[in-house]
Structure formats: structure tokens, C-alpha cells
Write a structure and sequence with these properties.
By secondary structure, this protein is of the alpha+beta class. It has helices at about 1-10, 35-45, 60-70, 80-90, 110, 120-130, 155-165, 170-175, 175-190, 250-260, 265-270; strands at about 20-25, 45-55, 75-80, 100, 135-145, 145-150, 150-155, 200, 205-210, 210-215, 220-225, 225-230, 240-245, 275-280, 285-290, 295-300, 300-305, 310-320.
Length: about 325
């Protein structure tokens, strides 16, 4: 008996299971009831897991605020980038770390954090984290009362997001090709003749354009496996945002911008004659130049139309674990 007790004392003991809340968007591109059950079953091998499905827009934000108040050790956003954005908005300013499982069409932030895009591989990744649970803090951007984790856009980019979000089945079936089709048709219908123009005011400077891209991290997005890099010096722990302005949009100009976007090099994009790089900024304001409201998106989710909107950054505001 004494020998058995001595042997037991020599065996390393695992720490108590961490409490994990998995927030599931049942309408995300690749999420199904069967897949959710398999993921939750697997995670329960190393965590004390509770899973909740979102019921409406901003429900994930509400659930995350409650999770932070109840002392969960981690929250997993299982859905697309829109679900992750809502979850981040609920956890900003708290000590409860956020992580994610890929369930959307693009899963930009999952890739940015180095989490695999295959949900089985991503689940195994989270299981391994149980033995190396080291949360760290990242910056978040702010715009229009909303936080964002990787990027926001005003103008053509946001118009494309609104069109894509209006057709979720085509988005799920065609992926990045539907984004391409939507970009072409949206440009032809709204931006080819008299596009809505904006004025950007930043650090005493004022310049005009038709689209503004603001990044909190790199890359801006992905086309398949290819990263699309637009703003230089974007990073999750820089304490700043990075931004560029597209001054003019014509068929000729966009045809010359596109190859630069697919180069994978932000500095190549920034050298285009119609793109003005603003460098790193802490705050900026965008106003309508012609009285026509302009659209805004955050983390690939349409936010609305505005006559004026302000951007800012909150350093180290969100805890993450990956």
C-alpha cells in the first residue's frame, strides 16, 4: 500500500480541466449539428465544455459578456469571422481569452493566429493548448461603436461585403469567386459613374478618395490560400492601425490594382499611383464629401452606412490564446 501511494505521488498530475464556452453559429458555412457534437465531444477530453448556439445578430457578444462575468477560462468562437468579431466585442477589456474554430468561408483571423483551417486539425490544436495555455493580449480597432480584430473598410470594399452577405448560399457554394463576381458587379453598378466619395482626416492631413482600408493585423484577407496584403506595418501588438486610401476607381485603375493585390506584398500595393498609404495611425475620421452616405464593414461583416465615422485603436484590449 505504501509503495502504491509512493508511486502515485511520483506520477505527474494534470491540472484541473479549464472551463471552456464554445459559441456556435449554426448558420456558418461549414458548421453542422453533427460536426458541432463531434467537436464538443473531442474537446471534453481536456476541457470542461459548454456549447451554446447563437440565436440572432450580436447574440455572441451577449454570451461572451456573460462568460467573462462567470469566470470561464476560455471562449471559442466556432463560426466565421462575423461570429468571431461579435465574440471579441463581448470580451474586450476582460481577462477571458478568446480563440476560434474555423466554420466560415474565409476564416481570416483563425489563419492570422496560426490555427489550422481544417476543423479537425483545429480541434486537435486546441486540445494541445490545454498543456500550454498561455493567453496573450492584442490590440483591437474601433469604429462606429464597434471593435474589430483584423480589418475594416469604407467604400467599395464594404459595398461588396454587403452584397455577399445578402446571398449566404452563393457565398458558401462559390467562396472567393462570389466575392470576385460581387466586386465586379458592385463596381459597375455604383462606382463606375459618380461613386460616393469620402474625405479622410488624419494627423492634420486631409485627402479624398472612394475607398479606405484600415487594418489591425496582417493580412487583410485571403483569396483561397493566397494572403491579400494591403497596408504596410499592420500588426496585432503595434499599438496602432494601418490604413490606405484608394483615391480614384476606374476600370483601368482597378485592372492595374488587382495584380498588385495578388502579389502578396503590401509595399507593392502601396506604390500604385491611385493608392495613398497613411502609414500607422492611432485615430482618423472619415466624412462624406458629397452628402451621400458611405458603407462600412468590420471583419467582413457589414456595419451600416454613415455620413461620418471615427476610427481608433485600443492597445492590448483583448486576451487571446492560440
Amino acid at each position: 500500500m505504501e509503495r502504491a501511494e509512493a508511486l502515485a505521488e511520483g506520477v505527474p498530475r494534470r491540472a484541473p480541466k479549464k472551463r471552456m464556452l464554445v459559441i456556435v453559429n449554426p448558420y456558418a458555412t461549414t458548421v453542422s449539428e453533427r460536426l458541432k457534437n463531434l467537436v464538443v465531444y473531442a474537446l471534453r477530453g481536456r476541457y470542461e465544455v459548454e456549447a451554446v448556439e447563437t440565436q440572432a445578430r450580436d447574440h455572441a457578444t451577449e454570451l461572451c459578456r456573460e462568460a467573462a462575468g462567470e469566470g470561464y477560462d476560455a471562449v471559442v468562437a466556432f463560426g466565421g469571422d462575423g461570429t468571431l468579431n461579435e465574440a471579441a466585442n463581448g470580451l474586450v477589456g476582460s481577462d477571458t481569452p478568446l480563440t476560434c474554430l474555423p466554420g466560415g468561408a474565409t476564416n481570416v483571423f483563425c489563419r492570422t493566429l496560426g490555427i489550422p483551417t481544417d476543423v479537425v486539425d483545429a480541434t486537435e490544436h486546441l486540445l494541445r493548448l490545454a498543456d500550454a495555455f498561455r493567453p496573450w493580449r492584442m490590440d483591437v480597432g474601433r469604429v462606429g461603436g464597434r471593435h474589430f480584430v483584423f480589418a475594416s473598410g469604407a467604400g467599395l470594399d464594404a459595398s461588396v461585403v454587403r452584397r455577399v452577405d445578402a446571398h449566404p448560399r452563393l457565398k458558401a457554394r462559390l467562396g472567393e469567386w462570389y466575392f470576385t463576381y460581387s466586386a465586379v458587379t458592385t463596381f459597375a453598378r455604383r462606382y463606375l459613374v459618380q461613386p460616393p466619395r469620402v474625405r479622410v482626416e488624419v494627423e492634420g492631413r486631409s485627402l479624398e478618395g472612394v475607398t479606405v482600408i484600415v487594418q489591425n493585423s496582417d493580412p487583410f484577407t485571403y483569396f483561397g490560400r493566397r494572403p491579400i496584403r494591403i497596408c504596410e506595418d499592420a500588426g496585432l501588438r503595434t499599438g496602432t492601425l494601418a490604413a490606405v486610401v484608394l483615391r480614384r476607381a476606374t476600370p483601368f485603375e482597378l485592372a492595374t490594382v488587382a495584380p498588385r493585390l495578388f502579389s502578396g506584398r503590401a509595399e507593392t500595393v502601396g506604390r500604385h499611383r491611385q493608392i495613398e498609404g497613411l502609414g500607422t495611425v492611432s485615430d482618423m475620421r472619415i466624412c462624406s464629401r458629397d452628402g451621400e452616405a458611405f458603407p462600412v464593414q468590420v471583419d467582413g461583416d457589414f456595419l451600416g452606412e454613415f455620413d461620418e465615422i471615427a476610427y481608433g485603436v485600443t492597445p492590448r484590449a483583448l486576451a487571446v490564446v492560440a
